[in-house]
Amino acid sequence: RVLVPAVCLCWSPGPKVVSQELSAELLEEVEAVLRRPPVIWDNLYANDYDCRRVFLGPYMGRAPGLMARLQGLLLNPNCELQANFIPIHTLGTWFGSELGSCAHPEHTGMEAALGDSQGAQDGSYSPQEALELALRDWVAEINQQALEPGK
């Protein structure tokens, strides 16, 4: 039997459960097998298999232009809620660059504050710039929570 074409299929990218890179070529192979663009279930930050590890770096290792070939992308997060701020924030920045627009309009001008930000200007994604922006926002969030009564 063949699945109805409207049914979306999830795929965990790459040759491993947690793959550091996802190329356009590999995605083309998956599309050919599935006969449709996949929904990615990305395990880049997953630590449910080893809770002694926590991944705090930026979203990276995914080839530019992938969103045009996907039905969607889901991020399998860290088990620790607070440890997901940077992964989810940088994923949002990646999505914004993939869509060719700013994912966070409230950060207008932030790119200039980060120094030479060619990536933000030409729509490409810079993991380092995304990380710096996420860290600034995380510190602001922590400071805000520290000021709240009962915290």
UniProtKB/TrEMBL annotation:
Name of this chain's protein: OGA GlcNAcase
PANTHER family: O-GLCNACASE, PROTEIN O-GLCNACASE-LIKE
InterPro entries associated with the record: GH, Glycosyl_Hydrolase_84, O-GlcNAcase_cat
Record-linked Pfam families: NAGidase (PF07555)
Coiled-coil ranges from the UniProt annotation: none
Organism superkingdom: Eukaryota
Organism: Spizella passerina
Domain GH84 residue range list: 1-99
The encoding gene: Mgea5_1
Gene3D superfamilies named in the record: Glycosidases (3.20.20.80)
A GO molecular function held by the record: beta-N-acetylglucosaminidase activity
